[in-house]
Amino acid sequence: MKLSLAALAALLVVAPAMAEKLPAQRIFESPDISGPRARGVKLSPDGKSVTYIKTRADDLTITDLWIADVAGGEPRLLLDGKQLAPAERELSEAEKARRERAGVATRGVVDYAWDDQGKAILAPVEGDVWVYDVGAKQARQLTRTAGDEIDAKISPKGGFVSYVRDDNLYVTPTAGGGERALTEGGTELKSWATAEFIAQEEMDRSTGYWWSPDDKAIALAFVDQTGVDIVERPEVNATGARVVPQRYPRPGRPNAKVDLFVQPLDGGARVKVDLGANADIYLARVAWAKDGRTLYVQRESRDQRRLDLLAVDPKTGQGKVILTETSPHWVDLSDDFKPLKDGTFLWSSERSGWRHLYLYAADGKPIRQVTQGDWPVEKIEGVDEVAKSVIFAAHKDRPGERRIYSVSYARPAEPKALTPAGGWWTVTVANKGGAFAGTYEDPKTPPQTALYRADGTRVRWIEENALKAGHPFWPYVDHLRTPEFGTIKAADGSPLWWSLRTPPGFDPSKKYPVIVQVYGGPSGPRVAGNWHTPEDQILLDAGYILFRLDNRGVGYRSVAFKTAIDRRMGQLEVDDQVAGARYLQSLPYVDASRIGVTGWSYGGYMTLLMLTAPDSPFRAGVAGAPVTDWKLYDTHYTERFMGTPENNADGYAKSEVVTRLSRLKPGSLLLVHGMADDNVTFDHSTRVLFALQAEGKPFETMVYPGLRHRGGWTPTNRMHRAMQALDFFDRKLKATD
Question: Domain 481-734 is in which class?
Answer without folding.
Answer: alpha beta
